[in-house]
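tool=predict chain=A
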Amino acid sequence: MVAPTSYQGGKGRIADAILDHIHLPPGAVFCDLCCGAGSISLALMTRGRRPQDIIMVDRGPYGDFWRAVAGGRFDLGRLDRHLRQMPSDPRKIRAHLKQLSREPVNDDSVYVFLLLQAGSFGGKAIGQKGGRWTNSSFRAFWEPKPGCNRKSHVNPMMPMPGTLRERVAEIVSNCAGLRAFRADVRTFSVPDNAVMYVDPPYEGTAAYAQHTLDVRALVQELSVPCYVSEAVPLTEDAVLISDGRSKGGISGKRRRAHQEWLSRFNVEGPWHVR
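tool=predict ok
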């Protein structure tokens, strides 16, 4: 299983490297806060962890998606209806998504959101405010021109509709028993037997679901083991997971490739390395 769509700051490429450093004792509940597209939880289930032992929390529209999946309420038929309305010509997809984003948020929002997020420029988080969609800028289909170094085209959605459907169907089929909430992680009640992972918004990037998070203040209020992904080390023994890539990735001001550090709190002894 992989994340349904591209997502700003998503951990799909490094999910396994992160999980290799997180110690999950028997009986522990993995609490995935600011889960977004869910790359970490999906990788954990792919490793054999039961969905019943995972809690996913996100304040944005992805919180509604995971809640629908967890509650067995996600209707693939309703998603199919929206996919059938997508233009077959990739050059027309951007205009279709723009129009879709201008419509009010309604009962089909969980399905519309997936389409908008897949087409979001740079994977920027699509949000909701006052019954409207926000952060709505979309990729255009791009074809190389004569003399261009790049020879292949760039699709307007990541992934394209067919692959999106396959990914979501796989998730729906394999996540029975998962617990998920659309909630502010600052007020979410973390179980006493939890191991907590937090992937907060990066400083200097576009707003993540219209809120910011002081992750240091959050973990200081908890007594459970906490692991935090950030662009900078938050503790002296933080582990560098990735030196990042020189191009692409999330929007925001940066002068060098983005790094990924994993810091831990309320955990003693040497790092767990798979």
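The chain has two domains: 15-73+175-265, 79-159. The chain has eight helices and nine strands.
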